[in-house]
Each structure stands twice: as structure tokens, then as C-alpha cells.
Amino acid sequence: MLPLLGLIIGLVIGLMLDLPIPEAWAAYITVTILVALDSLLGGLEASLRDNFRNSTLFLGFLLNLGAGLVLIALGLQLNYDLSIIVAVVFGIRIFKNLALLRRHIIKSVVRRRNRQKY
């Protein structure tokens, strides 16, 4: 509950502050947000499966972030926008994690209803 409260407070503060972001940083910040969302949802899904480990979450976040940022930097050097590809890949991962969370929640609701019937 505490991490969710921190997330909500952070979002409210971020939306209230009007901080300009340089255009050169936009792709990097976008990938950082997508990687953070992917890690958050992956960690939540692992937690629901009783398979959560802090080290896996932290290391996965760092490695995914590093890979995404390196791809964007490489694309800038090659004069080719790889940030779209990175965003699509992490978008797919986010939707996969959401689907896994949805399936887990549906299974747990069905199990509870079946227990209440008998």
C-alpha cells in the first residue's frame, strides 16, 4: 500500500510542477518512464505469483533501462530514430504484464466464488 501511495503522491507533484524538459532529453525520459512502468507491472505480477525478489526487480530495471538508452544513443549516432522501436517493445511488454495481471485477478476471483458456493 505504501508504494502505491508514494506513486500517487509523486504523480500529483509531477503534474503540479511545470518543469520544462529539453527536447534532447525527451526520448531518454520516455524510455525511462516505460522501463519503470514495465518493471512496476512485472514486479506486481511476480508478487501475485509469490515469486517476487527485490534483486530481480532492481537488476531487471537497470538492464532494461541500459539497453533502451544504449539503443536510443546508438540510433542518434546513426541518425535513425530507434526510440520508436524501443517504445514499441516496452509497450508490448507492459501490455503483456497487464494481461498476466488480469488473468491472475480473474482466477483469484473465480476461486473465491467457488469456495463461497461450497
Write the layout of secondary structure elements.
Layout: H1 2-16, H2 26-48, H3 54-77, H4 83-117
**How many domains is the backbone divided into?**
1
Strand content: under 5%
Radius of gyration, taken over Cα atoms and rounded to an integer in Å: 18 Å
| Strand runs, count | 0
Shape by Cα distribution: elongated
Care to describe what's here?
The structure is a single chain. The radius of gyration is 18 Å and the shape is elongated. The chain has 118 residues and is mainly alpha-helical. The mean pLDDT is 90. The protein has one domain. The protein has helices at 2-16, 26-48, 54-77, 83-117. The two termini are 32 Å apart.
In short:
It is built from 4 helices and no strands. With 118 residues, the protein is an all-alpha fold.
